[in-house]
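Long-time lurker, first post. I've been practising inverse folding by hand and with some scripts of my own, and I keep getting stuck on stretches where the C-alpha cells seem ambiguous. Below is the full C-alpha cell string for one chain I'm working on. Before anyone asks, I'm not after the true native sequence, just a reasonable design that respects the backbone. If someone could post their per-position residues I'd love to compare against what I wrote down in my notebook.
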C-alpha cells in the first residue's frame, strides 16, 4: 500500500488514527516488501501479526501463508480488515490479554509494534510463542538500546535476556518517519530474530522469573529471589553455579539466568 491508497481508505472508511493505540500506518511499498521477505514464510506456515492496522503488511503475507491470525485492538480497523480480507482470521482483541485458551501456535510472528507497549508485547511473545522459528518487528529506533545490550549496562534487563536467549538477532534497517501516515516524531527500525536451541528455556514461567530477578535492581539478586524460592535453595543454586552471594541481577549473563532458573 502506498500513501495515496492509505489516505483513500481512511477517507472512505472514516478511519482516524488513534494516538492512544500508537497508530501510524506504513505506506512505503519497498519497505513493506522487505519486511515480508524477512519473514521467510513457507506455504504451510501459521503466521500471527500483532497490530495489522490497515493491512499494509497483512495483505501481502495473506497471499503466502495457509493460516494467518491478525490481532487488532481497534474495533473499526478490525471490522475493516474482516470485511476486506477473506483469508485472514482477524481477532478483535488486545493481544496482551490473550490467554492460552485463545492462543494459536505460530511459525512466524510479525508486528509493527505500538511503541508504548513494545516491551510487554515482546515479553509475551518470547514467553508464550517461543516455538516460532522467526520473529520480525518494527520498533522505535531508540528502543534498540533495551534490546541489544549486555550485563552491567543501564538498559540490561528481562527484555534483553529474552532476546539473547531466543536466538540470532539482526538489526535490519532504519525506517524514516516519512514512511508512515500519519508521520511519527521518531525514526523506526526493523529487527529480526531467528530461533536457536537456547530458546527451549523460554516460557511464561521464565519471564516471571526474570521479572522477579529485576524487581528491585539495587538489591542483591538473592533478596529478589526470596519470592521465587527459599533462601537455602537460592544459596545452594548460587554455590553450584559459582554466583556470588552479593551479585545483582544486572551482573549475570543470559546463560547464567537460564541455568539458575533450571536449578530453582
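-- Answer (accepted) --
I ran through it position by position. Result:
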Amino acid at each position: 500500500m502506498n500513501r495515496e491508497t492509505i489516505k483513500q481508505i481512511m477517507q472512505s472508511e472514516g478511519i482516524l488514527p488513534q494516538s492512544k493505540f500508537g497508530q501510524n500506518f506504513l505506506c512505503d511499498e519497498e519497505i513493506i516488501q522487505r519486511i515480508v521477505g524477512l519473514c521467510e514464510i513457507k506455504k504451510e506456515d501459521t503466521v500471527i501479526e500483532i497490530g495489522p492496522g490497515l493491512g499494509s503488511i497483512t495483505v501481502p503475507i495473506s497471499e503466502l501463508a495457509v493460516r494467518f491470525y491478525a490481532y487488532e485492538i481497534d474495533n473499526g480497523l478490525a471490522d475493516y480488515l474482516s470485511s476486506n480480507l477473506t483469508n485472514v482470521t482477524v481477532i478483535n482483541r488486545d493481544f496482551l490479554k490473550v490467554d492460552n485458551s485463545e492462543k494459536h501456535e505460530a511459525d512466524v510472528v510479525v508486528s509493527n509494534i505500538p511503541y508504548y507497549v513494545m516491551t510487554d508485547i515482546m515479553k509475551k511473545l518470547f514467553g508464550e510463542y517461543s516455538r516460532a522459528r522467526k520473529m520480525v518487528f518494527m520498533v522505535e529506533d531508540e528502543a534498540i538500546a533495551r534490546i541489544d545490550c549486555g550485563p552491567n549496562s543501564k538498559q540490561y534487563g528481562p527484555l534483553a535476556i529474552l532476546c539473547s536467549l531466543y536466538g540470532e538477532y539482526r538489526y535490519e534497517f532504519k525506517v524514516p518517519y516519512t514512511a508512515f501516515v500519519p508521520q511519527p516524531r521518531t525514526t523506526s527500525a526493523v529487527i529480526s530474530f531467528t530461533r536457536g536451541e537456547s530458546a527451549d528455556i523460554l516460557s511464561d514461567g521464565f519471564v516471571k522469573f526474570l521479572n522477579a530477578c529485576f524487581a528491585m535492581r539495587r538489591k542483591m539478586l538473592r533478596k529478589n529471589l526470596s519470592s521465587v524460592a527459599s533462601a537455602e535453595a537460592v544459596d545452594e543454586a548460587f554455590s553450584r553455579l559459582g554466583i556470588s552471594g552479593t551479585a545483582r541481577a544486572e551482573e549475570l549473563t543470559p546463560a547464567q539466568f537460564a541455568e539458575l532458573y533450571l536449578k530453582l
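A couple of notes from the structure itself: The chain has two domains: 3-200, 204-263. The longest strand covers residues 167-175. Happy to go over any region you disagree with.
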